[in-house]
Amino acid sequence: MDPSRAFIKDAKRVVVKVGTAVVTRSDGKLALGRLGALCEQVKELMLVGIEVILVTSGAVGVGRQKLRHQRLMNSSFVDLAKPQVELDGKPCAAVGQSGLMALYDSLFSQLDVASSQLLVTDNDFRDPDFRLQLSETVNSLLELRVVPVFNENDAISTRRAPYKDATGIFWDNDSLAALLALELKADLLILLSDVEGLYTGPPSEPKSQLIHTYLKEKHDDMVTFGEKSRVGRGGMTAKVYAAWNAASAGIPVVITSGCTPEGLQRVMHGDHIGTLFHKDAHLWVDMKETGARDMAVSARDASRHLQSLSSEERKQILLTVAEALVANEARIKTENEADVEAAQLSGIAKSLIGRLTIKPGKIASLANSLRVLAEMKEPIGAVSKRTEVAEGLILEKTTCPLGVVLVIFESRPDALVQIASLAIRSGNGILLKGGKEATRSNAILHKVITDALPKSVGPALIGLVTSREEIPDLLKLDDVIDLVIPRGSNKLVSDIKAATKIPVLGHADGVCHVFVDKAADIGKAKHIVVDSKTDYPAACNAMETLLVHEHLVGTGGLESLVFALESAGVTLYGGARAVQLLKLPKATSFHVEYSALACTLEVVKDVGAAIDHIHKHGSAHTDCIVTEDTDVAERFLRDVDSAAVFHNASTRFSDGARFGLGAEVGISTGRIHARGPVGVEGLLTTRWLLWGHGQVVDGDRGVSYTHRNLPLDGEEAAPASGFVANRMHTLSNGNKTTTVIEPTMSNGALSTKGVSINGTVTSTNNRA
User: Fold this and answer.
1) Cβ atoms within 10 A of the Cβ of 612, count?
2) Burial class (CB in 10 A: 0-12, 13-18, 19+), 117
3) Contact residues for 757 (Cβ-Cβ < 8 A; gap 6+)
4) Are strands 114-120 and 146-152 parallel, antiparallel or unpaired?
5) What contacts 347, CB < 8 A, 6 or more positions away?
6) Any idea where the Aspartate/glutamate/uridylate kinase domain is (predicted)?
7) Is residue 487 within a helix (H) or strand (E), and if so which, with residue range?
8) CA–CA dist 165, 167 (Å, integer)
């Protein structure tokens, strides 16, 4: 539950206003499915003792639809050819009201819930006796478990201009709902719309941000209203005005979407959805708080400053961060121990506590990985392809950062260091959201790292998301966040994929297999199997299923493997054949990530059956074969469709640091962009640089395309501004020879000019 909405759990009487855009579809017809779902939600609230009062719009829209249809049926072709006069709202309201209420009555009846209709006008509320009787009637209905359904009686309203006429006590159904919430002493008012809440601008604009808690002093000048509702009278402007009036009088208000499943339930559960209006909002809303978009934009700006630094300067940042980690090891361990203690008291699983704990030597290991990253070849701006498009027109394909990456991870605070270091090396901005169980560890690590960043880059390069409620906002920012990398449970990854349009890179499970072939060296196999399972059982690259060739049943090999695992403290669960042969407890599923000292064991016919099993039950993460038969090994490595496939090596080698990547931001089991352990290269993309000297297309007249590949060399001189590289020079410097493509131009024609490095020049006039 969002702490700022904890008060909702005590709400016993709720007024729910249903907007016209919720009641009707885009074509003006009734949204039957949406209304049916809404009625079901009302009943569920009633079942837990919450009194619900409905205020509904839509009568005018329903009546207009009916009258248009009737006019069409009663018109001749001559009548239809004439300009059609828009129908007046009052007869539309009179016709539509009965149909709308009949629908509510029918839907509630299907749920064994009684409903009642109450039509009111603003003039009614001028009479004190009416207000007293209204309250008594509603209280009686609620005691009888009847849902009161209110609507303004537009057919006989005396207001000259609805919404704009300030002489009335209320001016539309939003303000009526606010008035009723006050009169009937409701604990909460919910205004349902066709958008998720109040945005800083029109919701259709990408830069508009959802405001979760409205603070008049902060948001009044920030909000820009777009067009009013497509079918209602006032749109969001009316809702905000009504919500502010109600909140100021002490009735909390939530504006949220009535088009999403379980919207009412989520509001009543205190979920961080919609926009909250509350008289005490100033006590918990920071006037200077950074929104999700601001955080992402700041990370992008900082990444551009980082990219503008020299390679040596970026290298020095990593070395400085490494020194800072070592210097602050005691502080880091203190905060981590506090997290571990809190996790143990809360009963978190041992596997998660294992991931949470920063073990002795881990900080030194992390610092060393940063030093390794610093010494790696410069990843930004590397030329992977150079082509002569036409004479004097050179095209280069170069590497560049993705931009801003959002990484959501669980438990492991050391992941924060790895991800941040990769962001620095690759020139990306990064937003990090760790698990709540590692809050203190993540906070101190983030502070140590960002304090070590130079002022020219700034701490915004690495943003730390501290609230789970911020994640939905971040996942909507597909215009400023370029990639999401979730590291955690299958549910976490699946939920994120379903909630965003931003590309997602990661894996949902780490169900890794080791297959011991009949031609395996059993001594070697035991070492590999035990290490794959026990070196770090909670890791995603730990073995979860052991497959054994059936030939080893009769040779004692199977029993030897079982004994080795059980001696190491591993609990075994069996597939059908293993249960029969070894009397093991039956595995609940072959697709289980134990993340503990446990694994599944099954006996298979041969390498083909092992491959089929892996494809059917695996997660395409890391799989291994142990065999001395080269042909069988080659078949396994060729046919197993996983991100990493090993021969005679522990699955625990599937790791960015062990692969020599310096660190990893995660392991991808997808097939797009990056696969396996993702290091610096996985956080890069490419762009094209074209070097010319005034060429134009002009319908391709006079252009002779050559499309010739030009040689690459890590020490080539960059083409001079205003010219084009078109000559290849061999430069000798002691034992070092460098090929340089250098541009010159003479009298409008390209010519060769020598360049000197330490006084030694060799120049050729051959075209590159």
Assistant:
1) 13
2) middle
3) 731, 733, 738
4) parallel
5) none
6) 12-257
7) strand 483-487
8) 6
Q: Cα separation of 678 and 669, whole Å?
A: 10
Rounded Cα distance, 501 and 458, in Å: 29
- Residue 470 tokens read as 């911020």
Task: Determine how many CB atoms are found less than 10 A away from the CB of residue 135.
Answer: 14
Question: Are 623 and 614 contacting, i.e. CB atoms less than 8 angstroms apart?
Answer: yes
CA distances from 38 to 34, 104, 227 (A): 6, 10, 26
First-last CA distance in the chain: 66
Tell me the torsion sign for CA atoms 396, 315, 442, 451: negative
Residue 149, C-beta contacts closer than 8 angstroms, at least 6 positions apart: 54, 55, 56, 101, 104, 115, 116, 117, 118
CA distances to 543, 666, 679 from 654, rounded to whole Å, are 11, 11, 12
List the structure tokens of 552. Answer: 């080893």
d(CA 573, CA 599): 6
3-state secondary structure of 742: coil
* Cα–Cα distance, 52 to 187 (Å, whole number): 11
User: Rounded distance, CA 727 to CA 755, Å?
Assistant: 11
Using the predicted structure, report yes or no on whether residue 163 has a pLDDT greater than 50: no
More confident residue, 470 or 196: 196
Helix (H/G/I), strand (E/B), else coil: 227: coil
Provide the b/e sequence for 624-663 (b: ≥16 CB within 10 Å).
bbbbeeeebbebbeeebebbbbbeeebbbbbbbbeeebbb
What is the rounded CA–CA span in Å between residue 612 and residue 680? Answer: 33
Element at 115 (helix H, strand E): strand 114-120
Among 30-39, 204-213, 228-237, 511-520, where is mean pLDDT lowest?
228-237
All residues at 6 or more sequence positions from 722 whose CB lies less than 8 Å from its CB, including other chains: 693
Rounded Cα distance between 18 and 229, Å, is 13
The total number of residues written for the chain in this structure:
768
What's the pLDDT tens digit per position in 624-670?
999 999 999 999 999 999 999 999 999 999 998 889 887 788 888 88
* Buried/exposed 269-296: b ≥16 CB within 10 Å, e otherwise: ebbbbbbbbbeebeeebeeeeebbbebb
Give yes or no for a contact between 617 and 591, defined as CB atoms under 8 angstroms apart: yes
Torsion angle of C-alpha atoms 679, 470, 488, 509, degrees rounded to 10 = -90
| 508 SS3 class | coil
Q: Is 48 exposed, middle or buried (0-12, 13-18, 19+ CB in 10 A)?
A: exposed
Measured CA angle at 358 (ends 356, 360), to 5 deg: 150
- HEC string for 233-291: CCHHHHHHHHHHHHHHCCCCEEEEECCCCCHHHHHHCCCCCCEEECCCHHHCCCCCCCC
Check pLDDT > 90 for residue 16. Answer: yes
- Find out whether 43 and 253 touch, Cβ atoms under 8 Å: no
DSSP tag of 536: -
Round to whole Å and give the CA distance between 431 and 481: 9
Residues 6 or more apart in contact with residue 453 via CB below 8 angstroms: 317, 321, 424, 459, 461, 462
Measured between alpha carbons, how far is 234 from 246 in angstroms, rounded to an integer? 17
Q: In what order do the strands lie in the sheet with 188-193?
A: 114-120, 146-152, 51-56, 13-18, 188-193, 253-257, 275-277, 213-214
Half-sphere exposure in the Cβ direction for 217 (13 Å, CA): 10
If DSSP states are collapsed to H, E and C, what string results for 583-652? Answer: CCCECCCCCCCCCCCEEEEEEECCHHHHHHHHHHHCCCCEEEEECCCHHHHHHHHHHCCCCEEEECCCHH
CA proximity to 655, closest of 502, 535, 497, 500: 535
Pairwise CA distance, residues 417 & 420, whole Å: 5
Angle (CA) 97-102-108 rounded to 5° is: 130
pLDDT digits (tens, 9 = 90+) for 568-602: 999 999 999 999 999 999 999 999 999 899 999 99
